[in-house]
Amino acid sequence: MRIGTSRIVALCLVFALVSLASVALLLFGGSAAPAKDAAEVILIKSPGCTKCAAAERTLDKIGREVPINITSYYYYTDEGHRIIKQYRARDVPAIIIGMQVINYRDYEEDDAQLERLINSALANQTTNQPAAFSLPVNESEKQSFSAADDGQSLNLKVISLYTLFAVLGAGLVAGFNPCLLGILVFLAATVLSSTGKRREMLRMIVFFSLGIFTMYFFFGLGMQQLLQTETIARAFRYILTVFLILAGFSQVWDAVRLQQGRTSLFRTDWALKYFRAGVDQGRFSSYFVIGALFSLVKAPCVGAIYLAILDLLSARSYFEGTAYLLFFNIGVILPILILGGAIAMGMSPEQVDSFRKDHRVAIRLATGLTLIALAPLIYWQLI
Description:
The protein is mainly alpha-helical. The chain has 13 helices and four strands. The radius of gyration is 25 Å and the shape is elongated. The two termini are 33 Å apart.
């Protein structure tokens, strides 16, 4: 079933209006100034943490009705470690009001429950109670979290199966795109025509996938480290929001062009001669380098989803985010392994290429609309 150009344009306009409305709400939304006799509230958080952003929104909502002064600390700072140790906070985010600590596990994403807990703590706080962060502290309390509580160790109990499958699915969406199918068909046809051996095809697929996986995984590890810094995380979120909108509309526009029979904006044929030269050498290292090079060529097709996932994973601890990043990159290469294996087992490259041509408009359109929808969610840290 062919998608009419007018329908595509109409969908683009709808998503554009939604994005503009979201920006307008952000620009014209107000916030109340703190009162002089406000209660002291401490928030322990981490950079890019979506759960922390949700807690901040709840505190801002309460602050419009009850005078409160909010002081925020990152968990990895000396002051953050001191407060966490002193009040025995166990989660990030953690909210401290007087001597009462509200840990994330006390409400588990239930904003209404969090609001009730905060109001209850404020009601129990006496006006002459000293600020939580001004209480005396022993020198021993300045030490960091233990390995079980600092959020920097890999705790299998906090690895969610739901999140694992979600990031794996996102990797599949990022990996399954017309750029991948086009290059895969070319490489498969080149290997089979050069050697005629299905075994050589399997070798190429494995090392080609390993090159892509290695490039994306180590790039992601570096970005994970950078996004632990508040200034970089905030700037990255703003840049990513704009990039998602532009990338989304470029994908939708490319779908319109393809529907009209015009050439794609995301052409990769310029790299084919380099890939063929590597295939002609027939070495494992050549296939690996081809995969690494393809990960760069593929960036316009995959980059937006990949960066969005990195932004979401930056809210996790470094090691937890690394575990999820591993599964995301497995998802990225799974389509290559599956389709490449199918070709090696007897499916003709022409069948894969026919599928690519028949469905590339729908794939581009779905990817574009998804990226546009992600932009406001990333901006307000709603996911």
